[in-house]
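Data deposition worksheet. Section B asks for the primary sequence of the deposited chain exactly as it was used as input, without tags or linkers unless they were present during the calculation. Section C holds the resulting structure in token form. Section D is free text for depositor observations; keep each observation to a single sentence. Incomplete worksheets are returned to the depositor.
Section A, Depositor: J.P.
Section B:
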Amino acid sequence: MYNWWGKDKGYSFDGIKCFMTHNMQENKLPQTYGLFLDNKIIGMYQFRYDDLDVRPNIYPWLANVYIDENYRKQGYGKILLESVMRNVKNIRNFKEIYLFTKHINLFEKFGLEFAELIDTYSDIDRIQRLYKLRIR
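Section C:
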């Protein structure tokens, strides 16, 4: 995560390491899943309680969905998102999970429903798309 986006956003390596250490819970949130190829991580995603500061009223979140740029457009994104659909069942006590993204016509293929445009109030990609996935 540090190389993928952490250093570009000004986070320290140790800060990202601490963040990841505490995002690897087995039976509760937050949970982190990785996609590996030849023992190298090429993608990941997380199930978290929070992801968008301006919307603390909705949770849990599918967050940090990412495929390394060197492995995009090779079918790995599909593998990653299909695993989301399998692993989301491990989230107990929730009927739905949310995702915000700038991508259009990607997550719909995997069962997520567009809910609304959302203002993130950030300097980059301020208006994004909010999606919802029904778990149960």
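Section D:
The helical segments are 2-6, 13-21, 76-87.
The mean pLDDT is 91.
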